[in-house]
């Protein structure tokens, strides 16, 4: 069914503008003479345009329901999709479910493309069962002549559910109908098997895609991110290197960032750091979140030298370190020169609360390094006890406010543990 172009006449534009004006007016009356007059001029094209104009999903729903009751007017699949998009973007699950239920009642005819779009709207809000049921009902009723594209859209909706049985049923149905099982069918299957953690089957699909020459950055990322989420870091890293070597595929910036965070969560900072250097070689600039997660991971593993090196890389790339990163580093180092460098980078521009946070991090660094007496000396000096200021760190940390209880607790814990 060929879609008609939206009218562009001045008359149509006036009708659209009038409808938007009336429905956004507060208060408005559905029985007003003005609306009654406009109702006779409704077309699916006008209704679609008006629906797309609303920023409020409730107004869009009220207008859609009002239009459906007007004599001589019937919704098209495109007006349904316009409202579905509004409801989906607003994450309105119950109204979206009601809209799906109304399709069979309306007896509106659908093109395969439009129906696929509606299925995706349902899937985006997790309405997998509703999408699957509607698919069968539309097929039985003859409201849409379903084709391979329709099936692929349904597979895409199912892909994140992990419902392998349902997905395999639809794939077999496609084969029996003579639909080609191609990249658009197998990519959702790969995602579904990964969501179900059925990696043996996922690898079979991946290999099938590879034989077709259909493995790209997106397909590769599906399998890699799934391995990472399941803690299979070594397997994921081997796959990255295999793809680089055999397929000449390098990961994009987004996937690299996701994997770096995932690897650190699995306490594999070593592999996360290797990915960071891959990013640099590919010309990608890591953002502050990547530096933050790597530095935290390295500090946790007591790899202070590597953490400080990353800190220098961050500064060289023009990224200003935030208080959290500097605090993390300060809590792990005890070398006075490193402390001074870190503090001088940010001390002047901080308010008192953030200075206190860094101050406590210095105390933690000294305590963790076995310098409890030095931490005690610094605490006393900051309190204005009359002790001589003997180091650069002490001079920088002469703050006007008295230390808070956290600072005292840090030093007390240090004495207890020693």
From TrEMBL:
Entry keyword annotation includes 4Fe-4S: no
Signal sequence extent: none
Repeat recorded as keyword: yes
Keywords annotated in UniProt: Repeat
PPR repeat positions: 182-216, 252-286, 287-321
Biological source species: Sesamum alatum
Designated name of the protein: Pentatricopeptide repeat-containing protein, mitochondrial
NCBIfam families per UniProt: PPR
Similarity comment: family membership: Belongs to the PPR family. P subfamily.
């Amino acid at each position: 069914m060929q879609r008609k172009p939206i009218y562009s006449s001045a008359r149509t534009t006036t009708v659209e503008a009038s409808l938007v004006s009336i429905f956004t007016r507060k208060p408005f009356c559905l029985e007003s003479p003005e609306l009654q007059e406009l109702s006779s001029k409704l077309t699916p094209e006008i209704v679609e345009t008006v629906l797309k104009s609303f920023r409020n999903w409730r107004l869009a729903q009220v207008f859609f329901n009002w239009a459906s009751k007007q004599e001589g007017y019937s919704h098209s699949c495109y007006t349904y999709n316009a409202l579905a998009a509004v409801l989906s973007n607003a994450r309105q699950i119950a109204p979206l479910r009601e809209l799906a239920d109304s399709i069979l009642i309306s007896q509106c005819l659908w093109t395969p493309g439009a129906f696929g779009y509606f299925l995706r709207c349902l899937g985006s809000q997790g309405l997998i069962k509703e999408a699957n049921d509607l698919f069968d009902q539309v097929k039985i009723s003859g409201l849409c002549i379903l084709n391979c594209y329709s099936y692929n859209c349904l597979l895409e909706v199912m892909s994140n559910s992990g419902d392998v049985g349902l997905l395999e049923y639809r794939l077999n149905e496609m084969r029996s109908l003579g639909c080609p099982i191609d990249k658009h069918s197998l990519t959702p299957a790969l995602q579904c098997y990964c969501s179900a953690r059925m990696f043996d089957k996922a690898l079979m699909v991946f290999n099938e895609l590879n034989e077709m020459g259909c493995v790209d950055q997106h397909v590769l990322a599906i399998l890699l991110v799934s391995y990472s989420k399941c803690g299979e870091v070594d397997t994921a890293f081997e796959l990255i290197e295999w793809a680089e070597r055999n397929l000449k595929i390098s990961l994009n910036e987004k996937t690299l960032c996701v994997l770096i965070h995932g690897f650190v969560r699995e306490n594999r900072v070593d592999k996360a750091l290797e990915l960071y250097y891959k990013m640099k070689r590919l010309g990608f600039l890591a953002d502050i979140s990547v530096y933050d997660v790597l530095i935290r991971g390295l500090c946790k593993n007591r790899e202070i030298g590597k953490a400080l090196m990353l800190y220098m890389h961050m500064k060289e790339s023009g990224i200003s370190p935030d208080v959290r990163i500097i605090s993390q580093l300060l809590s792990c180092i005890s070398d006075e020169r490193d402390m001074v460098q870190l503090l001088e980078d940010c001390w002047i521009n901080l308010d008192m609360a953030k200075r206190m946070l860094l101050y406590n991090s210095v105390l933690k660094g000294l305590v963790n390094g076995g310098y409890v007496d030095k931490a005690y000396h610094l605490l006393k000096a900051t309190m204005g006890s009359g002790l001589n200021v003997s180091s650069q760190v002490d001079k920088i940390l002469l703050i006007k406010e008295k230390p808070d209880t956290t600072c005292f607790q840090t030093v007390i814990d240090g004495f207890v543990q020693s």
